[in-house]
Amino acid sequence: MEVESRWNMDILWAVIDALLKGKLGFDTSLTEALKAILVAPQQYISTDYPYGDPENPVSMRLKLFTSKRLKQELSEFQLETLRISTIHSVTNFIPSTYLDMNNPPNWLKDSFTFLASIEERIPIPLPGCSIILLARKMER
After folding, report:
1. What is the pTM of this model?
2. Maximum separation of any 2 CA atoms in the chain, in Å
3. Average pLDDT of the segment spanning 1-6
4. Taking Cα atoms as reference points, which of 62, 46, 68, 36 lies closest to residue 133?
5. Which residues 6+ apart lie within 8 Å of 121 measured at CB?
6. N or C: which end of the chain has fewer CB within 10 A?
């Protein structure tokens, strides 16, 4: 299963964007951006994410999960977590709103490619934008 992760750089980018008065395109107030960080650490949160054309974005409501709580809840359904990993961690040093372009500039493509090559070589799990979880039904 793949879900959106609560703890990712976009949470911080939204705060920075609010301080920059929307220059990054997250379209979030400072209060709302800070609330996403300050809510109880294991609690799932929902956020609106702007998607598509920067001049006329569509707002998608995303639910953000934590690995620990998701693993606990799956075990309640007799699902054993075999592996948890993340994607889009180092590459998230570029705000996701910048990566959602039809024709990204070459500097952005090159930056993403460089960060992706670093991400592929890091041997430890990092917080990422998405959590990938592999689970199986426990035997009785």
Report:
1. 0.77
2. 55
3. 91
4. 68
5. none
6. C
